[in-house]
Amino acid sequence: MPANTYPSSSRYLIFNELRSGFEASSVPPLSVTLQVGQHLAISGVSGCGKSSLLQVIAGLKAPQSGEVLYNDQQIGESALHFWRQQICYFPQQAVMGGECVRDVLHLPWRLKAITHLPLPDEQTCLSALRKAGIDVLLEKTIASLSGGEKQRVAIARGLLMQREIWLMDEPTSALDPVGRDHIIQLIEESSLICISVSHDPVWLTSATHVHTMSLGKDECNV
Ligand SMILES: Nc1ncnc2c1ncn2[C@@H]1O[C@H](COP(=O)(O)OP(=O)(O)OP(=O)(O)O)[C@@H](O)[C@H]1O
């Protein structure tokens, strides 16, 4: 579908000629339209600018050029507050922000980033952890968790936040194949729009769209 064709779905995300400015000048910009249930994976060699593009999408870096539209709203500087309430951003190193699993899951409520949902109770937290593929006590200290367990706790927190768009930077880097496949299934069964950065060939195969970047030229299979 051409990037500027508005689909009939009630929720859609359009990237129109988007560039971070950290990719090679010969790399074409990102132009794609995503609907609910679709997953754009950004791939390419180290240093080609994948994470920078994701950070632009997250509103953490200003774009060099191009635009982002969510439904009928242009996501410029004045819409960043709105935009941050729609997205859940998972950086390469999961940000924990708490001493134990419960604290980490409650962080968005503590920071008042989530005000329209009640603080999740014990059962809701445990159910989100199970959906993310981790069975752990809420009292467990974060210092005792592996990198992959931390990644899954961050994903459980994302589930509790109930945001519509997930932005994931190398989400499977600390996961074994079983953990990775679990997250792939979770995303496929969700009604999210997901944009990820990944090198993992299995993860890339699971995406509905792949934007392949290089240090000099670029292809986008949409
Ligand atoms: N804020 C910044 N200031 C200066 N250079 C930056 C900044 N952000 C990114 N870069 C540079 O832009 C280039 C692309 O970085 P980026 O992290 O986006 O690549 P990547 O494809 O995600 O790499 P990797 O796969 O290794 O994580 C790198 O050369 C990086 O040093």
Task: Provide keyphrases for this structure.
222 residues; alpha/beta; Rossmann fold; 2 domains; 6-stranded mixed beta sheet; 10 strands; globular; binds adenosine-5'-triphosphate
Write up this protein.
With 222 residues, the protein is of the alpha/beta class. It has 2 domains: 7-86 and 165-222, P-loop containing nucleotide triphosphate hydrolases (Rossmann fold, 3-Layer(aba) Sandwich); 92-163, no CATH class. Helix content is 30%, strand content 23%. The protein contains 7 helices and 10 strands. The strands form 2 sheets. Strands 6-7-8-3-9-10 form a 6-stranded mixed beta sheet, sandwiched between helices. Strands 2-1-4-5 form a 4-stranded antiparallel beta sheet, with helices on one face. A hairpin with a 2-residue loop joins strand 4 (65-70) and strand 5 (73-74). Helix 3 (101-110) packs parallel to helix 5 (147-161) and helix 4 packs across helix 5. The chain is globular. It starts with 11 loop residues before the first strand and ends with a strand. The model has no long low-confidence stretch (mean pLDDT 91). Adenosine-5'-triphosphate binds at residues 22, 44, 46-52.
